[in-house]
Structure formats: structure tokens, C-alpha cells
Write a structure and sequence with these properties.
mainly alpha, single chain, 1 helix, 49 residues
């Protein structure tokens, strides 16, 4: 059944994309936290949410 195969492949692709996106979000939040720490140490008050 080619339709089922295509749907399966698309499901795998969406899963991989969501994993990549969540990893990217984690990395960005890590970078933001790092920058906020540096600014705080430099004496610039930054409120982190």
C-alpha cells in the first residue's frame, strides 16, 4: 500500500523535524541564559523570565 507507506514516511519526517525544532529551542534558550549571565556579571541588570 503506497499511501500507507507515504503517510508513514511523512510521520517519521514530522517527528524528526519536531525533534530538531525542540533541540533548536533548547540551544537558543541556553544561549539566551548564557548572555543574560554575562550581562548580569558585567553589572547590567537583565530580568530573565
Amino acid at each position: 500500500m503506497p499511501c500507507a507507506w507515504i503517510a508513514y514516511k511523512e510521520l517519521i519526517l514530522v517527528k524528526e523535524l519536531s525533534m530538531i525544532l525542540s533541540s533548536a529551542v533548547d540551544i537558543v534558550s541556553e544561549i539566551i541564559g548564557f548572555v543574560v549571565d554575562i550581562l548580569n556579571q558585567a553589572g547590567i541588570q537583565v530580568s530573565s523570565k
